[in-house]
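Notes continue from the previous slide.

Worked example: a multi-chain complex. Inputs as given:
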Amino acid sequence: MTDKFPRAARLADVARLAKVSTATVSRALTLPQKVKARTLERVQQAASSLGYVAHGAARALASRRTHTIGAVLPTLENAIFANTIAALQRTLDAAGYVLLLASHDFDADIEARVTRTLIERGVDGLVLLGTTHHPDIYRMLEANGVPYVLTWAFDESGNHPCVGFDNRAAAVRITDHLLDLGHRRFAMVSGITASNERAQERLSGVRAALASRGIGLPAQYVVEKPYTHTGGREGLSEVFGAGEAPTAVICGNDVLAIGAIAECHARGLTVPGDVSITGFDDMELAALMNPALTTMRFPTAELGAYAANHLLMRLEGKAVDLRCKLPTELVVRGSTAKPVA
Amino acid sequence: MTDKFPRAARLADVARLAKVSTATVSRALTLPQKVKARTLERVQQAASSLGYVAHGAARALASRRTHTIGAVLPTLENAIFANTIAALQRTLDAAGYVLLLASHDFDADIEARVTRTLIERGVDGLVLLGTTHHPDIYRMLEANGVPYVLTWAFDESGNHPCVGFDNRAAAVRITDHLLDLGHRRFAMVSGITASNERAQERLSGVRAALASRGIGLPAQYVVEKPYTHTGGREGLSEVFGAGEAPTAVICGNDVLAIGAIAECHARGLTVPGDVSITGFDDMELAALMNPALTTMRFPTAELGAYAANHLLMRLEGKAVDLRCKLPTELVVRGSTAKPVA
DNA sequence: TTGTAAGCGTTATCAC
DNA sequence: GTGATAACGCTTACAA
């Protein structure tokens, strides 16, 4: 009978069993082509018969590589980032990397803290969401030489590698569309713009598009709400309480839009018959909930894959375009023209 | 001018600057109370002035602890697990642990592979979803002495630590409710039951509850679909195509229920006026989408917190109840009684 | 309370 | 192709 707790097999055990040195085992396991076929076979045989599992920490310490990529997101609780995360995961997995996830609930200090934790964990690279970050974050990235990509927004300053969308242009696009349909009374249920440049850009795009046609967006028709369904409901409710009802409501994203549509239903209003609700990101769900929801499609899965590949290439020392902007697209569903008021 | 790439500060650098040994620095940083206040201060001062960040791999290698918990989920793409993940994260974060996430798209082989990767990464503990797993998984957990918890289901075999729900009882509960309202023609849009005991238990609970009132569930009124909105739509569509329409459709979870409701809308049916759609899990969204959606509430956030605490306590060597069942609750919204057919 | 020094399990640099 | 062996950066007995 063997031990009850046989300590996990180590490289040396495999070496002993295969009658080779630890160096050879190490090579066989990581660079099979550098080892004679016969030796390779012996090593593999020994490893599997011992149920050998490499010790990640030791490997990381010696090789100075963890094969781990970190991602810091605002939240894991809404589905907006789900596609991106899934795509990141899949791409990294295929390359033998693991994804370490952290979130901060839109709090800049927490963001700095979790980012530090990830760096301490030795991530080989980092995916950050957005371009606005605590200065400490950039300092730590710099000091530790950690490769990173900013995502979901495009860094106009040109100082950081990024893979993003042109949130402002997307907002202009959807607003123009509504204007072309004849809408003149607008409201916006925006996300919280403080330290969130994606939200800022969307709002500013809407403002700019309206202004260029001589239309204003009075303060009482702009409300900022957290990106939740409830936020969308409350936001729209406040807008309706503000005075003459708008014919078009642009929501900061589809989560807010879904909430806004629910509020309309609760008030007996039809969408888009009585009021047109539009959003951003084109979540499958939004379309399902209201087949008349026009929105801007952001290729979020592509974003994840792109960000992952960007980092992977840099880690392999390959040259890469450091800044890129992914195209967004207007998705029109059952739009209704409005008579000019 | 200093170097362009000053290598990251190590423990020894801090020790030198603070004029103490590396052992003292190590203690000061991890067990502050074991060090004289004055020394502690010097060390902290030195560390922060150097921007010292501990090397996680070295720490893990020496201490044999990574302060990382892994979680293996079926998918990150639907919102069902979002609450659980968020709660896990928060609880672990508060205890100084980090969460390493992996998913497998309901594929048992992939599940085994990613689980192995996590063990190789040296996770201190593991959260697994469900009770049905590849035998290799249990073998690896055993061989490596990795503490784990099964979640979302209750392990009746009594062989594994678990924090779960009684999916079968929940299914019985909601079915009884519908029966009490007078429904007699039922259909079920279930999740894929193969190697998913949560789905199996829900289906079997529905069957049992119906059977105890002498009602059957013919094969053509049971369809299995992936947990997506589209799955829900298609599932309900197939049910309607099967013959006389049911008055009550029980969906495997709220994602399917949302899809099913959309299908009803598309067919001009009102819910629950024409047909009653019910689900499981009580996602906020489901209620928002249809305020008449009766469902079973599963305390998913509590589950995450509970699972995390369970592992944390075991890691601290404390005794814990190894198996527990969290209560589920019927949430009735605008139910409509049906005349007995 | 603090210091000394022996690991922790790999990888990587050399010789051979 | 393969084998010694010195790192890798930290923790932790054990000694002082």
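Summary box: Residues 167-299 of chain B form a domain with the Rossmann fold fold (CATH 3.40.50.2300). Residues 166 and 263 of chain B are 29 Å apart (CA to CA).
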